[in-house]
Amino acid sequence: MYRYDEFDHAFVAQRVEQFREQAARRLAGTLSEDEFKPHRLMNGLYLQLHAYMLRVAIPYGTLSSRQMRKLAHIARAYDRGYGHFTTRQNIQYNWPALKDVPDILAELAAVEMHAIQTSGNCIRNITADPFAGVAADEIEDPRIYAEIIRQWSSLHPEFSFLPRKFKIAVTGAAEDRAAIAFHDIGLQLVRAEDGEVGFAVLVGGGQGRTPMIAKTIRPFLPKAHLLSYLEAILRVYNLLGRRDNLFKARIKILVHEVGTEAFTDMVEEEWAQLKGGPVELPDGELERILAYFRPPAYERLEAVTPAVDVQARADPAFAAWVRANLVAHKQPGYAIVNLSLKAEGEPPGDATDAQMDAIADLADRYSLGEIRVTHEQNLVLPNVKAGDLYELWQALRPLGLATANIGHVTDIIACPGLDYCSLANARSIPIAQAITRRFNDLARIHDLAELKIKISGCINACGHHHVGHIGILGVDKKGEEFYQITLGGDATRTAAIGSIVGPAFSSDQVVDAVETVVNTYVDVRAPGERFLDTYRRLGPAPFKESLYAAH
Amino acid sequence: MPLIRNGVIADDDWIVAADDAALPDGQPVIVSLARWRAERADLLGRNTPLGVRLESNESAAALADDVGRLALIAIAFPTFRDGRGFSTARLLRERYGFSGELRAVGNVFRDQFLFMHRCGFDAYEVADAAEAEAFAAALASFSVFYQSTGDGRTSAATLRRLRRAAE
User: Fold this and answer.
1) What ipTM is given for this predicted complex?
2) Per 3-state DSSP, what percentage of chain B is helix, strand, and coil (rounded to 5)?
3) Are B116 and B88 in contact (CB under 8 A)?
4) What is the architecture of the domain spanning A134-290?
5) Which CATH number does A306-399 carry?
6) Is the pTM of this model over 0.90?
7) B166/chain A closest Cα distance in angstroms
């Protein structure tokens, strides 16, 4: 893991002191709420429906056990005993008091964390493949580059007042687990024919009210030029992105309006001026950061651990968990273990202080002290020895963290919705909870294979409904909560935006409607076919028929 | 409105000339880009320092060939949210080599002083004396910088390299 040096420590400490002074002016009444707003937003502090909400960055989704304990402590000491992991590898606290926020930021700084640029029209938290560094299908660890970008983007003097927020995701794997096609910039590590590793650069993806899939503007960028190329993209956007209409201000609209080719030309022209200049990393800096991400001291283990199979044969519940929640590790004898934050009846992505503390302990005991946060709102122990799996699973069960549903129908992404959010039209969490209660039979869940449901409480699409295999969008109809269903979305390499299947459903009907869609899939699927593949083969017709024909 | 120049409150000896106003003899004037383009030869013939004001949607490239002829360029910030001027300033300084006074005008607040300074501004027109008095503290609020701009500050990455080289 990256460790702060004296520069990083000083930077974050100075940021805390700056905010402490601003918060003091607000508390003394010298600053009005309006005047305070830009200050608090630059530090991740929102004013929500009921209270302030503090969003803390978890850069590229990597946490140490020490950091996780600090997150638990903050939840307990300053909030109501829980935190909410978001789709952008952040954690949100829903009830902090303003007077405490400078102290919370100081607590975070002590464990090398911060809330810088988790809101505002600036470059947001840099996200990455949650399995970075351990995935079997990876070219290189994307966190090296995410950390370089994190530093470059922190209080960037030119790009802190962009037309709109700006999100960057990086992956080094064949499979896209970071939804890079739905970011303002997506970076994919690729290997050229001569063996050199560089980036494919995607620009202009996003969700919100105008969902768009990012376009590849450069198939291969040498690593040495990462920062000059990013600076070129950001400069073109900063100067030409629309500022007349909040809803048309993201870079996706600029790329769409000028066209991918013209946009690419502008970036390349700007890059020609910046390339090789002072913006590039000085010699040795890449190597310095890379050294922090060297693989930990793995034991030499047999690739196959017979004990796991024996335990699995004896214990079908363990076998189901192994099948659903484990991912192949690049190191023989180790596994990547997903901890589901989608237990039946629980708000997706929430974890209590006790759970966070317990996860930190389990990470120390079983995962070389490391934890990951996924954009699908789950946690990961990335370095578990296969021989420890049964013991770990037994420890996770009483904590409510062993739900065997990763990638399945109840592994739902949901935004905070109208329960918390001042933008929402409808509640998201109760719909998610109701779906997990409806589909509470594990055999049925697994029979439905991979099936991703994503719920947003408004058109801003924080719950990623556009890319749900089944997407649910909360809308307001004459003061009542209604839910539109979209089908066929996909956030991965085969990216697609879901299509609205028909008229919206009331909050009483929507869970039945989801079940109807799911049952229709079961009726019409070919053997072994996933929901998404069935939808792609047959289109919306059978689903429309079963949803609306009877009405 | 108070003017901060080179870190201290300074007298403003420049006259901002409206497009249709007669220009005062012998005094430095700031004109719009449109007027600069229309009356370029006459303005250069005045033999007094010249300044041009760029609105936030006007590009640095429009003055690329004239940076040596201008003593001042003012860049407008119509709201604090409009950050185009940061890019315009860096382009004028770092690409086109403008070395005269680069002045931020409009909605200019203490929270942007350091960003603006890093982008090459050396003069700031602010709303009141309190903002002006906050200038020194704003510039001193950070000692670590993660980016290399043309402002002379050394980035953290470069400091690390220098330290490695010294070891």
Assistant:
1) 0.98
2) 35, 20, 45
3) no
4) 2-Layer Sandwich (3.30)
5) 3.90.480.20
6) yes
7) 13
